[in-house]
């Protein structure tokens, strides 16, 4: 008797993304995961590759260090340098447009960084925040956080899902840029997980040192797990805010075919970033991860060139 | 984009454009060669780690603590000296390190990482403990940045002709450690005649 009362009192577990199987669009997901694996592994493999070059030159850590042992197993690196906030692929220089903003603010306009930021800017203008869903090295940590939420939910441990307003991320971005202007040091690379993880990867491989910046990444994981699902990406990350402004009018977006839709809300549950495809509330915050497309049981969602009329909802607050 | 978001974004951009740009983060650290003057360097560097990545001696490091300069590179010549290969200046994507060739004379004209300071009371020849002249032997600009004088071949540094690479500091025997490369704290001198 007492048991049944306890059961009825216990709140029903909220539906978690891991509860929902991906049915369609699996090729898109495979492509995304493959690209993500490639770009995230660059964060750790490129330091190892170039450690190998340094060791061949007779420098770097002692030959007995495990990183050197691993580096010596690798083949000679291709002509790639950097990762993840600045890459040189053969002769093409690339820098993260989110970091170019701060440099442009303090140092003024310059063609040297504009050319390097341009490919990224064009991609963001076309595809919105797609870097967040396709290349960010924080994504594996976010996946771990979502899995942790799922497990905690299974064992009845409550996890909050605070809906921090999206505009907080714009406040963080503009605040970081103001701090950059006032202090004269670039502040966005101190708060932006790809920059933090990139430096941490190099620092660990080259010097065996753990940087204090990792504390912010750990904090983001704890926040995402216990306070707000994907809350850091959705409502705090300055890079995500910059991309969602630049990509607010991107033409390639998720579109719902109304006759096929059965209003089942699965797409709304599966979205990490609080987008609501079921009611066509998709704005600059969409990372084009395609999980809503894959989860839709009636294939009502697809990624396509949207008509200008569909752009009107961009940047609307959820 | 709705009207309110548009107005907020434009207002933020306008405010950021009008706010005065300061360069207070100038740090008292040795920066890699070709670095912009202190202050300007911190404004331009995005901490991408590529200078440290190409450095063949891994002398370029990043701070590991929590600080405003956590994303800017520095050289600790006491740990490892710069060999003046100028590779780091070639890779900087934001030109925080200005491109320089590894030509000996161009490096001599344009690179000033720091200023050599000799503590004579610890230097072996100056204290009459014997002939050492290791600093003179490793110096890439012998007889210009450092010359040896007297019967003990004691070093005499000429700060205005020293690029500050720190090879002498690295070479100075552990028991003595008489040489330190101190930050300039002033802008890198403009190109000068040798």
Structural description of this entry:
The complex is a heterodimer of chains A (318) and B (194). Chain A has 318 residues and is mainly alpha-helical. Chain A has helices at 2-9, 26-56, 66-73, 97-107, 111-127, 130-134, 139-154, 167-183, 188-191, 193-207, 214-227, 231-235, 238-246, 266-270, 291-295; strands at 80-82, 86-89, 92-95, 252-256, 301-305. The radius of gyration of chain A is 21 Å and the shape is globular. Chain A starts with a helix and ends in a 13-residue tail after the last strand. With 194 residues, chain B is of the alpha+beta class. Chain B folds into 2 domains: 22-111, Alpha-Beta Plaits (2-Layer Sandwich); 112-187, Alpha-Beta Plaits, CATH 3.30.70. Chain B has helices at 3-18, 40-44, 50-54, 87-91, 104-110, 134-138, 167-171; strands spanning 60-61, 74-75, 114-118, 146-149, 154-157, 179-183. In chain B, the strands form 3 sheets. Chain B has a two-stranded antiparallel ribbon. In chain B, strands 3-6 form a two-stranded antiparallel ribbon. In chain B, strands 4-5 form a two-stranded antiparallel ribbon. The radius of gyration of chain B is 20 Å and the shape is elongated.
Would you kindly provide a brief summary of this structure?
Chain A is mostly helical and 318 residues long. Chain A contains 15 helices and 5 strands. Chain A has one domain.
Q: How can the largest sheet of chain B be summarized? A: 2 strands, antiparallel
DSSP summary, beta strand count of chain A: 5
- How far apart the termini of chain A lie comes to 42 Å
How many distinct folded domains of chain B? 2
Main sheet characteristics of chain A = 3 strands, antiparallel
Order of neighbouring strands in the sheet with most strands of chain A: 1-2-3
Estimate what percentage of residues of chain A fall within beta strands.
5-15%
Radius of gyration based on Cα positions of chain B = 20 Å
Radius of gyration of chain A: 21 Å
Class per helix and strand makeup of chain B: alpha+beta
CATH top level label of the largest domain in chain B: Alpha Beta
Give the number of helices of chain A: 15
CATH architecture of the largest domain in chain B: 2-Layer Sandwich
Q: What kind of oligomer do you see?
A: heterodimer
């Amino acid at each position: 008797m007492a048991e049944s009362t306890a059961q009825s009192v216990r709140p029903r577990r909220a539906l978690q993304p891991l509860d929902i199987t991906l049915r369609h669009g699996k090729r898109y997901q495979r492509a995304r995961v493959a690209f993500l694996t490639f770009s995230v592994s660059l964060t750790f493999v490129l330091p190892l590759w170039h450690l190998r070059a340094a060791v061949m030159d007779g420098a770097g850590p002692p030959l007995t260090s495990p990183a050197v042992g691993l580096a010596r197993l690798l083949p000679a690196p291709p002509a790639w340098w950097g990762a993840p906030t600045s890459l040189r692929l053969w002769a093409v220089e690339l820098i993260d447009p989110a970091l170019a903003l701060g440099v442009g603010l303090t140092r003024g306009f310059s063609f040297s960084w504009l050319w390097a930021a341009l490919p990224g800017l064009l991609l963001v203008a076309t595809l919105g925040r797609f870097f967040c869903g396709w290349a960010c090295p924080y994504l594996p940590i976010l996946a771990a956080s979502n899995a942790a939420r799922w497990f905690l939910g299974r064992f009845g441990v409550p996890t909050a899902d605070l809906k921090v307003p999206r505009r907080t991320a714009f406040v963080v971005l503009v605040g970081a840029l103001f701090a950059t202007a006032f202090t004269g040091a670039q502040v966005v690379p101190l708060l932006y997980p790809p920059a933090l993880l990139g430096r941490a990867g190099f620092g660990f491989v080259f010097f065996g040192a753990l940087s204090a910046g990792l504390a912010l990444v750990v904090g983001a994981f704890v926040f995402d797990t216990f306070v707000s699902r994907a809350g850091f990406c959705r409502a705090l990350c300055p890079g995500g805010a910059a991309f969602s402004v630049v990509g607010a009018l991107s033409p390639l977006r998720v579109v719902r075919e109304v006759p096929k839709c059965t209003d089942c809300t699965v797409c709304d549950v599966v979205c990490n970033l609080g987008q609501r495809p079921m009611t066509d509330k998709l704005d600059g915050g969409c990372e084009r991860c395609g999980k809503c497309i894959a989860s839709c049981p009636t294939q009502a969602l697809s990624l396509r060139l949207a008509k200008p009329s569909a752009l009107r909802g961009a940047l609307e607050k959820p | 984009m709705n009207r309110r978001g548009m107005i907020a974004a434009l207002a933020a951009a306008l405010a950021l454009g009008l706010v005065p740009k300061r360069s207070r983060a100038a740090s008292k650290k040795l920066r890699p060669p070709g670095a912009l003057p202190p202050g300007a360097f911190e404004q331009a560097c995005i901490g991408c780690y590529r200078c440290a990545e190409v450095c063949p001696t891994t002398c370029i490091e990043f701070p590991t603590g929590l600080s405003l300069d956590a994303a800017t590179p520095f050289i600790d010549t006491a740990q490892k000296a710069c060999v003046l290969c100028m590779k780091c200046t070639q890779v900087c994507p934001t030109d925080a390190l200005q491109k320089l060739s590894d030509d000996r004379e161009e490096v001599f004209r344009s690179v000033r990482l720091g200023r050599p300071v000799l503590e004579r009371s610890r230097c072996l020849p100056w204290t009459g403990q014997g002939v050492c002249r290791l600093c003179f032997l490793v110096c890439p600009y012998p007889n210009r940045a450092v010359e040896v004088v007297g019967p003990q071949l004691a070093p005499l540094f000429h700060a205005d002709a020293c690029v500050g690479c720190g090879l002498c500091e690295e070479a100075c025997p552990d028991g003595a450690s008489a040489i330190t490369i101190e930050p300039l704290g002033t802008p890198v001198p403009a190109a000068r005649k040798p």
